[in-house]
Structure formats: C-alpha cells, structure tokens
Specification:
This protein is α/β, with parallel strands linked by helices and 334 residues long. It contains 16 helices and nine strands. Helix 7 (162-172) runs antiparallel to helix 8 (176-184) and helix 14 packs parallel to helix 16 (320-328). It is elongated, with a radius of gyration of 25 Å.
C-alpha cells in the first residue's frame, strides 16, 4: 500500500474504531506517517493527541500495571501511558515496534487491542489504536506476531513509492541535490535487501539524514565515508559522483537576478535539482525572470518546475508572466 492510501486507511480506521497494524521494512516512514495523520486531524481537532508506546521496551507488568493491595483485595495500577489519556479526549495510541515486543508483552496487549481496555481502565471512545512493526523477513529484531493478536488488527503492508516520496520531499525541505539524484536513480530510494549483510542501506530515513548532513556542511575529507555510513558504499559512490557534477550547477539567486545569462545544465539530475532550486525561490517579485528561465528548460522539466513553484507559492499564478506562459501552453495541465 502506498503512503497516501495508508493515510486514508488510518483516517477511516479512526472513525470505525478498528485497530490498524502497519508492517514494512525498516526506515520507510511508518512512524512518520502516523505522526502526519495525527497532525492532519489536529487541523480540525486542535487537542487531538498522539501517545507513542515503544512496545519493544516494555515488560508485561508495564502493560498490565502493578498489583496493589487494598484491604482484602488487589487491583492493578494504571499503566503509565494511560496517565496522559484524559477522559473525553481523542487521539491515536500508537503501539510502535510491536513485532519487536516479546511474546509475553504481545499477550499482555490482547485486551487493550480488542476490548480497548486494560482491566478497569478503558480507552476513551475518541482514541484509535494503531500499531507498526518490521516483518520477520526484514532481518530486524522481530517476533512472529501471534495469530491471536494479529487477528485483532486490519493489517497493511507499506510500500515505498518514489513519486510520493519526492512529493513529500519537495515540501519537507529535503536538499534539491538529493531529490534530483533520486529522480534519476529511483531504485536507490530504498535498496534494502534482507539477504545481504550490509550494515548501511538506502531508505527514506537515511536519505533524510543525508540531506541534513549536506545542509550542515560536510567536509570533503569525510564526505564519502559519512554518506556511505548512511546509505551504503554502492549508493554513496553514485551519489557523490552526481554531487560533484552538481557543484557546477548555476546559483539560483544569480540566475533569477540575471536570467539572460543562464545556461541550463545538460545532465538530467543536475537539471532537475536546478529546476527545484528555482521553484523554491519563485515569487511574484521575480516572476518575469523565473518564467524566462523556465522557457529555457525542455518541456517536461519546465512544467515540473512551474508545478513545483505553484505548490510553494500559489500567488505566482496571478502574475502577468504566468498568464502569458499559460496562454502559450494551453495544452499543459498545471
């Protein structure tokens, strides 16, 4: 399942009060998608909560609670994660790393997942249960989920889709050079192979780390080893090679200041990265220069550049430069 459909699935499950279990390889964004859904709901329900329970770190007593004696009877104390869930509130109780939880911890979760309660403590009606974990085939720390627990969930497998990731990356501030490279080499967005013994591998999480590293300024002497430590030597070799080509990419600020002097890069990855750089800087004030440069790009790249610019700054559609460009390109869907 693609991430966009997973978001729809979780939103539906919240309304249906049906627990959802997200399964997938390490580093593909399972936890991030749950956080995104909570933030999206928060746009209409400001106090919508998200309680993250890392089940792999829990013991059965952490789920069930400690027994206390009151007179001639005993009762269980409220689990710690229940304390932040107030009566009448709403949110997502996120059971992360559930497949890494020991079997006895999984058993302690049966009542919570199916009956929405632990002993006398009930989950408020406004709360949904979402869980996530790796598969046993992923060479991660994972136990086979018992059929008793698995049958309590809607189970979905999350797939990596490069187009959806690029769409997210454009709005998340991911370095244009990373986006441009993965547009050229989409197979390297996620090259995890559980059959190999490689310690580092490329995945959405590690590419985000690469982007952060570039933003922080990597010294040339450690650049390759650092990037290889994130995405593996093979992917790092290709990426650093393209990165060197991108060193000659025109400065987008200078290009917008002097559009008549701009030379469009020939390499596709560099051209794409340059287009994204320009799109992120498009404003009403520089619209004439922006569209002048866009006309220098091959058709598909120009359309992509303008579509991206509109996502960042929709006001450019009200400029004379955009209106003139749109009139000349009536057959293009923006």
């Amino acid at each position: 399942m693609k991430s966009t459909n997973l978001v729809k699935t979780i939103l539906h499950a919240i309304n249906a009060k049906t627990p959802v279990l997200i399964l997938g390889a390490p580093g593909i964004g399972k936890s991030a998608i749950v956080a995104y859904v909570a933030a999206k709901v928060r746009e209409t329900i400001p106090d919508f909560g998200l309680v993250d329970v890392r089940t792999a770190l829990y013991q059965p007593v952490d789920i069930k609670g400690l027994p206390t004696v009151e007179g001639d009877s005993a009762r269980w104390t409220k689990p710690d994660f229940f304390r932040s869930i107030k009566p009448g509130s709403s949110g997502i109780l996120f059971l992360d790393e559930i497949t890494a939880a020991r079997p006895e911890v999984q058993a302690a979760l049966y009542e919570l997942v199916y009956d929405r309660r632990i002993g006398e403590y009930a989950l408020p009606d406004g709360w949904a249960i979402v869980a996530a974990g790796n598969r046993t085939s992923d060479r991660a720390v994972a136990y086979t989920l018992s059929t008793a627990l698995a049958s309590r969930f809607v189970q979905v497998d999350l797939d990596v889709d490069v187009d959806e990731w690029i769409e997210w990356a454009l709005g998340a501030g991911i370095d244009e050079r990373v986006i441009g490279f993965l547009k050229l080499r989409p197979a390297l967005l996620h090259n995890f192979d559980p059959q190999t013994k490689a310690r580092a591998f490329a995945c959405p999480r590690t590419w985000e780390y690469v982007s952060r590293s570039l933003a922080a300024g990597l010294e040339p002497s450690i650049e390759f080893d650092y990037v290889a430590g994130l995405i593996g030597e093979g992917a790092a070799t290709e990426f650093i090679g393209v990165l060197r080509l991108m060193d000659s990419m025109p400065d987008p600020d200078e290009a917008l200041a002097r559009p008549a002097t701009v030379m469009i890069p020939e390499k596709p990855a560099v051209m794409y990265a340059f287009a994204v750089c320009l799109a992120r800087k498009a404003r009403k004030e520089n619209a004439d220069a922006f569209f002048s440069i866009a006309n220098l790009f091959p058709g598909d790249y120009a359309v992509l550049m303008i579509q991206t610019a509109i996502k960042f700054n929709p006001t450019i559609q009200k400029t004379g430069a955009f209106i003139r460009w749109a009139a000349k390109n009536k057959n293009v869907l923006i």
